[in-house]
Write a structure and sequence with these properties.
globular; about 50% helix; 9 helices; Glutathione S-transferase Yfyf (Class Pi), Chain A, domain 2; four-stranded mixed beta sheet; 4 strands
């Protein structure tokens, strides 16, 4: 089997890149990483060498190109089925896929006004109209998942799944902007932050030198 290669953007800013990267790390996959800093003079042309969409992340494997974070995770779940990427129970799995898809396509107010940032703290910033509603919806998802399906572990469905990878950038947003959380949500944030892979990503994001003003306050 040829080597897996994941093309990503800046670790400090690229929430989309974090999702498959974290999932691959958590499920023990070995992969090569190509990091292309975003919004530089030649970043678009570099990304298009790998991605037909011109966006990261992109997975390269066995002459196969897979782009979009959710498509990548689904491809990996099919390619490496011995790992439990989704909950085993069909009903629970449907719920997990639903909240993952909701995260994938929604929460635009939160995304736009609280951009992911690993190395800087902006307490109280970004809380404009519509953001609190997004925060409330996220925490309601977390509480429902933890209370109904997560009793056997620290994550949304007990063990780590793709759903946790998709909410990981939100964890970093909540930390960076010092979002006030209920006890269940705070415990979940702490569990995600405690992951060795998550700490690796954060530390590498902090060590990056690129500064993108559109993602800073």
């Amino acid at each position: 089997m040829t080597q897996l290669t994941l093309v990503i953007g800046n670790k400090n800013y690229s929430s989309w890149s974090l999702r498959p990267w974290l999932a691959m790390k958590q499920f023990g996959l070995e992969f090569k990483e190509i990091r292309i800093p975003l919004y530089s003079s030649n970043s678009s042309s570099k990304i298009r060498q790998y991605s037909p969409s011109g966006k990261v992340p992109v997975l390269l494997h066995d002459n196969q190109t897979v782009w979009d974070s959710l498509a990548i995770c689904e491809y990996l779940a099919e390619t490496f089925p011995t790992s439990q990427w989704w909950p085993e129970n069909k009903i629970v799995r449907a719920f997990a896929r639903s909240i993952t898809a909701e995260m994938h396509s929604g929460f635009q107010n939160l995304r736009q006004n609280m951009p992911m940032n690993c190395r800087t703290k902006y307490p109280g910033k970004g809380l404009v109209s519509g953001v609190q509603q997004d925060i409330d919806r996220v925490t309601s998802i977390w509480k429902e998942s933890r209370q109904n399906f997560g009793v056997n572990g620290n994550f949304l469905f007990g063990n780590f799944t793709i759903a946790d990878a998709f909410f990981a950038p939100v964890v970093l947003r909540f930390v960076a902007y010092d979002v006030q959380l209920d006890t269940v949500s705070k415990d979940y944030v702490d569990a995600v932050l405690a992951l060795t892979a998550m700490q690796e990503w954060i530390n590498e994001g902090k060590s990056e030198t690129e500064i993108l003003p559109q993602f800073e306050f």
